[in-house]
Amino acid sequence: MPNYPDVMDKLVSLCKRRGFVFQSSEIYGGTGSVWDYGPLGVELKRNLQDRWWNAMVRQRDDIEGLDSAILMHPRVWEASGHVGGFVDPLVDCSNCKKRFRADDPKIKGTPGTPDAQCPACGMKGTLSAPRLFNLMFKTFMGPVEDTAAIIYLRPETAQGTYVNFLNVQQSTRQKIPFGIAQIGKAFRNEITPGNFIFRTREFEQMEMQFFVEPGTDMEWFEYWKAERMKWHQGLGLAHERLQYHQHTNEELAHYARAAFDVQFDFGGTLGFQEIEGIHNRGDFDLGQHQKFSGKKLEYFDHASNKRYTPFVVESAVGPNRTLLALLVNGYREEAVEGESEGRTVLGLKAALAPIKAGVFPLVKKDGMPEMAHRIANDLRNAFPVFYDDSGAIGRRYRRQDEIGTPFCITVDGESAGANTVTVRDRDTLAQERIAVDRLREYIGTRIAE
Ligand code: GAP
Fold first, then answer.
1. How far is CA 374 from the centre of its chain?
2. What pTM was computed for the model?
């Protein structure tokens, strides 16, 4: 199995320098494990989310979209098991006041006993016995800050879907099997966040809950397992960097009857890590919400004259983590023949690249800037382009390579007379001469590949 290099530090630097991802509140020293998406990052994330929405909602007649609120009735989280069960055991050091997960491999000895050693300050006997810590962010609804007003920031979008199961089913007249998909923010007060945008405290999820007749759930589980792997491969992630991981009984979440992760190999010491979870949640969630709300969440199948609580097969993927996988997968440094300086390339699939084409006048005279502006303005109606006339042409190519722009269009000495330009391919470096009238169609077709 190839051992991919660790490119994380290089990516963090590229992402800041080129405007993909910035640390949140950086001028105040940053907020722990919270990140902002800059001009290129927001385009890339949106392209990824649109691709998911397209595949899951627009292209299918058996999945409906939903956008439920982040704030929900606090009983939702009691029913879902998050108030009681969404916990990590933590230990505190009474000397340096640092907090660790109880299973942190850096802790020597058993926390709570005199032999345990704090991994931060090195003192012995200062670590508390493990205490359970809930990962949900709490806040208050309304002006009174008492326990009756506690409300949570949702740790997953899925619960907003379950409580709307009947609203969606009845308003769309969908028949089982059918799914509900949504994209939205989720919040987890992670104890060991890190690895850039891999594990953060504020992130997004793209989740789809597929409601099926009990007994058909494992068939659908296998279907979605295969479908979702194909989707990740279709993003351009190297096939050999993707694998399934089956959850053991110890790993299974409280709601899951069966679960597989789709893992991506992030290289270095991080290696294979989850980017998506596919879960057979049975009737756990709808059953719990029926119990806690007292409202029936059943489905009546007219054809078979049967009434039942549907089972759920869930596909849950994080766009932030998948975006990181795309960056890691696409990042490469390479030598260029005949040039002393190498180049850095983000080999993003053209459909996902934030900018589809750079448009350059070879020199800033002879009408070339005017023609290049006209071309850029025309193409901008179809896809994002970037006009650049500063510096040597080689430098301009390199700047686009580094942000993953698949095509660079250059207006040169022949352009005005022949109404043609050169189009350079980011990966092959081949240059083709294309008629200006054909540019939209040419690039449009290549982006759709
Ligand atoms: N509704 C099921 C659920 O939330 P999960 O495996 O906890 O399942 C699904 O989360 C996906 O959400 C993960 O595969 C990951 O891509 C993303 N995710 C979870 N926690 C995250 C975090 N702290 N930071 C970034 N992404 C996260």
1. 36
2. 0.94
